[in-house]
Design a protein that fits this description.
The complex is a heterotrimer. Chain A is α+β, with helices and mostly antiparallel strands. Chain A has 2 domains: about 5-310, no CATH class; about 355-445, Elongation Factor Tu (Ef-tu), domain 3 (Beta Barrel). In chain A, about 40% of the residues lie in helices and about 15% in strands. Chain A has a 6-stranded antiparallel barrel. The two termini of chain A are about 40 Å apart. Chain B is mainly alpha-helical. Chain B has 12 helices and 4 strands. Chain B has 2 domains: about 5-65, no CATH class; about 80-300, no CATH class. In chain B, helix 7 runs antiparallel to helix 8 (about 195-205). In chain C, helix 7 (about 185-205) crosses helix 8 and helix 14 (about 325-330) packs across helix 15 (about 345-365). The chains are: A alpha+beta, B mainly alpha, C alpha/beta. Chains in contact: A-B, A-C, B-C.
Chain lengths: ~500, ~350, ~375
Amino acid sequence: MSALTSLARLEAVATGRAQPLATVRHCHLAEAPLVMVPLKLAGEAAAPLAVMLGTRPSAPALLVVPQPRNRDLRFAFAADLAKVVLDHVEAGRGSVEQLPPGRDGEAKTRYSDAPQLLVPNRGGVAFLRMLGRSTRFRRTEGPYAVDAAVPALGRWLTWFTERHDHPGSSLLLAMTEVLRLHWATGQSSLEDGNLAALLGWIDPPDGMDGPAAAALAEDPVACPPAGPATDPTFDNEVLAPAIAAYNEGAPQAEEKIHRALESQLAPTWELMWRAVRLLRELPEGASVPARWERDRDAFTYYHQTFGEGYPQARRDPPVRAARRLHDLERAQESYEAQRAFDDPLVMAEHRLAGQAFGGVVTECDPTRLDESGKRPRLRPYLRVGTEDPVQLEPGTTVCSADRPALKGRVVEVGAGGVLLELTGGMGRRLTPEPGTIPQVGDRVCFTSRVADSWGAARFPDREETPWTHGGPTEDYVPTDEDAAEEWS
Amino acid sequence: MPTSPDALTPDALEERIAELRAAVRRAMAAGDRVRARALRAELRGAERAWDEAVLGDGGDPADERPWAGGGAERGLLPVRDQVHQALTLLGVPAAPKLIGSVYAAFFPGEIPGARLTSLRRDEERSFRTAPYARPYYLCAGLTADLLAAARGLVTVSTWPLEQRIVGPLSPRTDFLTAAMRVAEHAGRGDAASSPQVRRLLWRFATNIPGATDAPATGVVGVVDPAVLAEAARAELDIHQAADRDQRRQAAERARAQLDEAELLFGTRLRAMRTAASAAGGVPSGAPAPAVPRRRRAAATASRKSTASRKSTAAASRTKTPRRRSSAPATGGEAAPRTSRRTSDPAPPRRRPDGASNGDDR
Amino acid sequence: MTDTALALDRLRGGAPPRNHDARTIAALTANPGCARRGLMDAAGVDKDAVARALGFPAQFGQSQFAITRGNAFEAQVKADGCAELLTLLRDRLGLRLPEVAYDDLEVVGGNEGRELRYTRTRRLLARALESGEGTLFDHPLLRLDIAGQPAYLEPDVIAFQLEGRFHVIEIKSFAVIDGQAEPDQVAAAARQSAVYVLALRRLLAELGAPADRVSHEVFLVCPENFSNRPTASLLDVRPQLAVLERQLARLTRVDRILEELPDDLTFAPGDALPEAVRAVAARYAPECMATCEMAFFCRDEARACGSTGALGRSVRDDLGGVDSIGTALGLANGTIEPSPDLVETAEQLRTAARLRREALDGAA
C-alpha cells in the first residue's frame, strides 16, 4: 500500500472501473495451467468436500467426497486427486535441457517447463497446505494404509505451497493476489478477497459498472463464494440434507451431492478462466522468464530427488528456518527491484519513495576523468533535472533503469536536479563506448534499488546451532506415529 | 402461478427447485424463519416430484421420514432393555454416549441414537401413568446438593439411592468404577477383542494415570484390562471415602424430602431459598439442619409443585439455545465465525409462568 | 434511574436491552472511535433488527457442520466428569490427583433462570475460596456491568486449584496443527476469554479476594492436528485485558455522546430511523464487517459520501488521513488548494499523480 496504489483506488472509484497498477504481467502464465477450485467442510481443519480442476476451461473434472467424515471416502478422494495432480506434474516437465557443468564439475540439467497450479484465493493456498500436511505422512502399508499416490500428493502439495511463499515464484498462484498486483479497485482489500467482486471491478459485464458488479458478487445465493469455505445457508439448506440422504442410502443421493457442489463450483471455475484470459492480455514482464527459470530449477531439483527424499518435516530446525527467512528477504528485495525495471508503474513507487528518480538530462560531461587516484579513471558527470522527491544520500550507488549495467554514484541532490558520477558500464577505456552515456535532452531514470544488494548469508552449520536456538538438531526421520495420526 | 408440480417436466422441476432453494436460503440469511419454513415445505414437494418423475417409483413417501442410525442393526430388544443391559454392566450412572459405546462393544447390534435422548422423559411419563407397573424404570441421577435430575445421566430405578445420587466427586469415581467394570468384562472375553472394545478400553485408559503402561507380556498401544483395572482402583482409592460420605448424606436428605416420583426423576422445583442455602454446597462435615423445618418446607414445596410443575417442565424442556452467530459475511475469503453462542445464555422468551427472566430488579 | 439510563432507554424505543455476551463485549474493543456503535451497544439496541429495518440486513447464519463439530468436540472433552479435560489439566497445569470435583452450574434444579445460576455460581466460588472445595465448575454464569446494564457471561468451564488459583477454560473446535493455529482464531479466542477473566476478577473482588487469584493465563482446549484428540495451550490474555478495561472505562462516557444529540432521538423502528441513525457519527472501516451488524449500512453511507475510510484504514493513512475521496483527488490534480496541515500530503499526491500519468503515457 502506498500513496500511488491508494490514488489508483481513488481513480477507480471515480471512474467505476479498476485502474491498472502494472503495465506488464509480473508472473508467468503457463500454456495449460492446472486450475483448482477446492471446497472444504465447515468446522474442520482439512476435510475436503470437493474440487473442480482441469487444464482446459471446457473440461473440468469434479471430485467429491459424499460423506466428508468418512475416512475411507476421504482417502479415496485424495487418491483421485493425486492422480490428476501427479499426472500434471509429470507432464509439466517438458524436455530436459543440458546446462554447463556447475562449480563442482557435475553435469546439471533443467526441465524446460514446470507445472503450474492456480487457485482462487489465499484460502485455497491454505487449503492445499493443510491437505498436504494431512496426507504427506501417510503410510502405504500397515493399519492405516492409503494408496501410494497419496503421500506423494502430500509432498508435492507441500512443496507447491512452500514455493508460493517465495517472492516471485509462479508455480502456485492465488488468483485474487495476482489480480490485485495488476489492478486497483474502488473497494477495500478485504472486499478484494472476493474473486467475483474483484473481477467485477476489473471486467464488469455489459451494462454494469464496477460497484454494481461487485454488489451482485456479494450475494452468496446468486454468486457462490469462491471457497474453500461454503456459504452457511447452502450448507444448511442444500448440502446437509443431501449428505443425510446419502447416509441413509437414498437412491441417486451421491449424484445429487455432485450436482449441488457443482452448482457452487462452476461459477468460480468460469471466473478463474476469465481471470487467466485477462492476464494473458498483458505483455509479459522482461524479468519473468528469469524468475520462471528459478522456478524450473527448483522443480527440477525436487523432482529428481523425490525418490530419495522424506516428507517435509513438521517444523524447521532453527538454522534452516533462519536461512529460509534470509533467503526470502533477499528474494523479496530482488523481486521488487526486478519488477521496477520491467514496469514504469512499479518504478514510479520507488520514485515516489525517493529511492529512484527520473527526468531529463540537463548537463553531461562524458569524458570527465577522475585523476585523484594512482591511475586516471573515466568518471563522466551527468546532471538530471527532476521534480521527484529524491531521498538519496550523496555516495549512494544507482543504476540506470533502461540499462542496469550503467552504474553511477550520487554526488549531490539540489534544486537543479541530481548530479551523478557514472562509474561503470561504459566500456574499459578512458573514453566511453558510443551509445552508453545518455545525452542532454534524453529522458532517464536511475534507481538505488538493485537486485542482489544483500550479501550472502552466513549461518552456522546445523551441528553448531547455538544453544539459544535449542542446540544441534537431529535429522528428521518420519515415524510410525506420523502415519497413525487419526483423522477426525 | 405455476401448475401443480406433477405436471411439470423434470427440467422445469429442476428450475423450480433451484428457485426455491435460493428463496429458502435468502429467507434464512435474512432471519425470516417463518417464510423459510413455508418455502422449505414447497421445496420438499418439488424435490419429491422430481424424484418420482426421474426415478420412477423408487421413492416411497412412507420412507421419507429419516430413521435415525441408518445402517445400524436393529436387535430384537426394545431400546429400554438394551439400555438396561448396558447400565447393569457399568453399574454407575452414565451418559447416553457411554451407554451406547458399552452396548456396541459387548452386545449384539447397536442402540439407535435418537431414542436415547427421549428415553428419560418417556420413562417418567410411563411411571406417572402407572407407578411400579414395570419391573424397573430408567430414571435420572440426582444431584446431591439440590436433589434435582442430573443433566445427561441415566440410572436404573432398582439401584440403591446412594448409587443413583451424584455428588461433586461422583462423576470421577463413577468413571473409574466404570473403567474397572468394563476392564473386568473385557478381560473375561476371548483374547481377540473387537475394535469397539479396544476403543472403549482406550477411552478409559488415556484418562487414568498409569492405565496405559505396557503390560508385562504385551504389545505397546493396546490396553491391558488388568493394568487398566489396577490403575482405576488406585485412583478410586483417593476419592472413594469422601464420595461415599457425600452420597450417603444426600440420600438421607432425599428420603426425608422427596416423594417417590421425585426420588426417581428428581425434583423440578425452583430451589426454595431456605432449602437451597441449607442444602446447597454444604461441605461434608457440616451438620444437617433440623429435620422438622425442612419437612414443612418440603410439604409446601410439594403442594406448589403440581401447580408450577407444568410450567417449569415446559421451561426446562427448552434445550440449550440454538447456537447462531450473527456476523455479517462477506463473500469468499471472510473466515467463518468461531463463536457458537447466542447472545443469551437463557432462552429469550419470558417464561410461561411469568416468573422472572433473570433481569435485575 | 439516572438521566443516562433514561436516555438510553428512550434510544432503545422502550424495547428490552439486548444482552451482551463475551463476543459482543470483546467486539467493543474493535472500533473504539465509533460513536454510533458505542451508543447502540451501551443502550443495548438490537443492531441486527435496526440494520434489517434500514434495508441492510447483516447476513448471518452458521453452517450446521461447524456447529455440530463444535458441540461434539465440547461434549467429548467434558464427557464422563470432564475426563479428557482432567487429563489435560493434570498434564499442563499440574492439577493434583485428588482435585476432581465437578459442579454443574448450567441448570439449577430444573430452572435455567440467570439470576439463580449467577447466585449459585457466586456461592460455589466463594466456598472454593474459603474452604478449597470444588475443582471444575461447568457452565458457570458470570456477570459484568456494561454501562449500567448487567451482561451475563458463560465461559465453558472454570478450573480451581488447591493453591487457590482460578483458570478460565475455553474449548474451541479450531485445530492446532503442529503446535500452531490460525492467528485470527486464536486472537478472537483471546479477546473473548479476556472478558471472562475480567468478569471473574470483578466477582472475586466483590467476594474480597485479590484479582490475581484469577490467572491471566486462559486454558485453551482445541483439537490436535486432524483428529478429535484434544490438546491444551495456555493463552496469556494480559494485553487483551488491558485493552478491554480501557474500553469499558470509556463506555461510561457515553453521556458525552448523548450531550451532542437531540433530546428526542430514538432508534425505535419507524420512518425516522434512518435519520436518527445518521445523526450519530460512525467510523466505518472494512473490519466492521466481521464484528458489527450495522456494517453494511455504514459501508453504504461511507461510500455514498465518498469517504476514504471505506477503502480501508491503510488507504486513508496513505492519503495523509484525508477523509474525502473528492478532496484527495482534488489535491492530487491540483484543483484544490491544501490547508496548511495538508500541504505535504498534497505535494505527495500531486507527485503520485504525475508519476502515474508519466508511466501510463509512456507505456501506451
